[in-house]
Specification:
The chain is mainly α. The protein has a domain of 70 residues. The protein is built from six helices and no strands. It is elongated and about 90 Å long. The protein starts with 6 loop residues before the first helix and ends in a 20-residue tail after the last helix. One of its GO terms (biological process) is ATP biosynthetic process.
Length: 125
């Protein structure tokens, strides 16, 4: 980690009275010495702001989330629910597995085929 204060600056600070003298400066003293009521007020204010932000976020999430009827409609519209689409996906998977089995059984590079449905027709390895 790179520090903004060099070693010589720290040595000078130690010689001149150190951190205690630095904390006695008027601008630093106002930051350090606060009454407990001020601290409590700031803490409560920060809690209120964070709570309000969380409340707004929760309300927006509840507003945007679809209802149960809309969820069911979205599930029915999904392509995986269509019987024709499911049959097409099953057929594609069968063709892919058949091609992989054939590729494992032969020395031919099946990736060079122009039509994967047919055997042969491409360059050989």
């Amino acid at each position: 980690m790179v520090s903004c204060v060099g070693h010589s600056s720290l040595r000078r600070l130690r010689r001149r009275g150190g951190l205690a003298r630095l904390l006695e400066a008027p601008e630093v003293a106002s930051l350090v010495t606060r009454s407990p009521m001020e601290n409590l007020h700031k803490l409560l204010l920060a809690g209120a702001v964070l709570g309000a932000g969380a409340g707004v976020g929760t309300a927006l999430f509840a507003l945007v989330t679809p209802g149960e009827e809309r969820k069911q409609a979205m599930l029915k519209e999904m392509p995986e629910q269509d019987p024709q689409r499911r049959d097409e996906a099953a057929r594609t998977k069968q063709l892919l597995l058949a091609t992989l089995q054939e590729a494992a059984a032969t020395q031919e590079n099946v990736a060079w085929r122009k039509n994967w449905m047919n055997g042969g027709g491409g360059r050989s390895a």
